[in-house]
Amino acid sequence: MTDPQTPTHEIRHFIAGEWTGTPTRERRNPARPDDLVAVIADGDAKTVDAAVRAAEEAQPAWAALPAPARGTVLLDAAEILRSRAERAARDLVREEGKTLAEARGEVRRAIDVLRFYGGEAWRLGGDHLPSSVPGTFVYTRREPLGVVAVITPWNFPIAIPAWKTAPALAAGNAVVLKPAELTPVSVKHLADCLTEAGLPAGVLNVVNGPGSEIGDDLTGDPRVAAVSFTGSVAVGRHIHSVVSARHARVQLEMGGKNPLVVLDDADPATAARIAAAGGFGLTGQACTASSRVITTPGVHDAFVAALLKEADRYRPGDGLAEGTVMGPVVSEPQLATDRRYLDLAAQEGGQVLCGGARPEGLYQAPAVVTGVHPEHTIAREEIFGPVIGVLTADDLDSAIDLANDVPFGLAAGIVTRDLGAAHRFAARVQAGVVKINRPTTGLDLNVPFGGVKDSSTNTYREQGSTALDFYTWTKSVYVGFED
Ligand code: NAD
User: Fold this and answer.
1) Atom of ligand 1 nearest to the CA of 334
2) Theoretical Cys-Cys bridge with 7: which of 16, 39, 341, 461, CB 3.0 to 4.6 Å?
3) Which tens digit of pLDDT belongs to each residue from 4-17?
């Protein structure tokens, strides 16, 4: 039993190796309001200033370490996180709401990310190039940027901070990390593991609080060389204006309205399983969630019938309870958003076949809406809930046109047995990630990830070795070895 008045965690800011600040704001478990997960200290301009100063002071010595020594810290942090993975996963469920299986997978991902970039530090190399000048060659060095700000959303509270922070540190940068205000506990686990692994004080700093209050202090600080952000389009656009105005480097990964095309030759049950995993898994709170399914006419009815059966399986419940396949919505405002879009869907002429009634608590049952037209709001705007809108298209080409007919371009999928159709889709669809016969959600950590159009700045990719491009700049060194 947890005491509704006693928080499990006191979350402060982590600056120059010390946890500071007075926690006041509560975070309760979205599945159980009597479970007080944490009280959190909210920062201000002074907190941000101190964190950036600490990072600026610590960065040169960190960058001067041999890269393999930096990598070893990441590798050791991975082992420490592995040893407390179950605790971190349970805290993640309690602060964010996803199921224990999903949370275990996410913590596992953070461990693997730390390992991957621990290894990358060992091979952080450049190129060796011939020169046009006789007796000369050129090599390139990857130099760190300096102080990097990392700003993260709540829906992957440990994986996203890990996949931004680990490459930044591997490359020799110092980091000021601002986690989402709803989910700071997972970042505390990450910071603790890195600290226990020997990360020097000040190399990673964490500032908590609402981005609307402290965000500009961080992104506008001239000492911050680069900002990596994942979150909503509206906030991303604002950050872009602040950071690019001072000509600093910025990377934004934002929302999606991800299409899954189901062609006539697809097995309806398989297609429904793929759609449900992508649309209802993680409570639909994934940037790559399949929120639009576009079917061709021959499969529509059988697909919808199979999808309704799948929806029945995704009954929402407490993520920590045995057998729960879908957790609660993260917060009251997010639930209100889900409800508002479902009301709009009905008003605009869609048929809400399930998920229409509001259950008790912060729960949203999976919703399937048919009769959705391309101009309907739920076909165009990101909902970030377990809602799948079903549209129809005459054939593959019109399905591709529909898939592309939104401002977003993050993930896209197709279910078909026709290899030619699958590759035609992959070539023409406007999305950073294409999945053939797999859910639009779920990514490998060694594969470049990012969107196009409004989903991304589309300048640098995250994840894999490619992520290091954002966190480094290239210096070219000419070496004359013969007169
Ligand atoms: P959000 O944009 O509201 O917040 C994201 C982060 O930005 C939070 O830490 C927040 O405090 C901070 N922030 C808010 N205002 C700020 C400001 N003015 N300056 C600096 N920082 C500020 O997003 P959210 O609700 O936490 O997350 C959901 C969104 O994230 C969805 O749109 C989802 O699609 C997107 N997302 C994208 C990806 C991806 O890789 N493309 C992955 C996960 C989530």
Assistant:
1) 25
2) 39
3) 889 999 999 999 99
258 ligand 1 Cβ < 6 A:
no
pLDDT at 1: 53
User: What's the predicted TM-score (pTM) here?
Assistant: 0.97
- 122/69 Cα distance (integer angstroms): 8
Q: Is the beta carbon of 232 within 6 A of some atom in ligand 1?
A: yes
Q: What is the pLDDT of residue 3?
A: 75
pLDDT given for residue 360 in this prediction: 84
Q: Do domains 9-254+456-477 and 258-436 have the same CATH topology?
A: no
Please report the pLDDT score of residue 211 as a whole number: 98
- The catalytic site residues sit at 287
Q: How far apart are CA 382 and CA 292, in angstroms?
A: 10
Whole-number pLDDT of residue 92: 98
Reduced to 3 states (helix: H, G, I; strand: E, B; else coil), residue 363 is coil
- Which residue's alpha carbon is nearest to atom 20 within ligand 1? 215
Q: How far out from the chain centre does Cα 166 lie? A: 14
| DSSP element (H, E) containing 282 | none
How many Cβ atoms are within 10 Å of 229's Cβ, its own excluded? 27
Is the CB of 155 inside a 6 Å radius of any atom of ligand 1?
A: yes
- What DSSP assignment string belongs to 389-456? EEEE-SSHHHHHHHHHSSSEESEEEEE-S-HHHHHHHHHHS--SEEEESS-SS---TTS-B--EETTB
Measure 219 CA to ligand 1 centroid, in angstroms: 14
Residue 272 Cβ contacting ligand 1 at under 6 Å: no
What is the number of the ligand 1 atom nearest to the C-alpha of 210?
11
Alpha carbon of 160 to ligand 1 centroid (Å)? 11
Six-digit token string for 25: 């704001």
| The CATH number, out of the four listed (3.40.109.30, 3.10.50.40, 3.40.605.10, 3.20.20.80), of the domain defined by the range 9-254+456-477 | 3.40.605.10
Distances from the Cα of 41 to the Cαs of 24, 185, 202, 304, 467, in angstroms?
6, 12, 19, 47, 31
Q: What is the pLDDT of residue 54?
A: 99
Rounded Cα distance, 251 and 176, in Å? 15
> Facing residues of 253 across strands?
230, 456
Sorted by where each begins, the domain ranges of the chain are 9-254+456-477, 258-436
Residue in the structure block whose two tokens are 């159980």: 32
CATH class of 258-436: alpha beta
Point out the residues of the chain with pLDDT beneath 70. Answer: 1-2
Pocket of ligand 1 contains residue 303 by CB under 6 Å: no
Tell me the CA–centroid distance for residue 109 and ligand 1, in Å. 20
pLDDT, position 2: 64
Q: Give the position, in ligand 1's atom list, of the atom nearest the Cα of 449.
A: 40
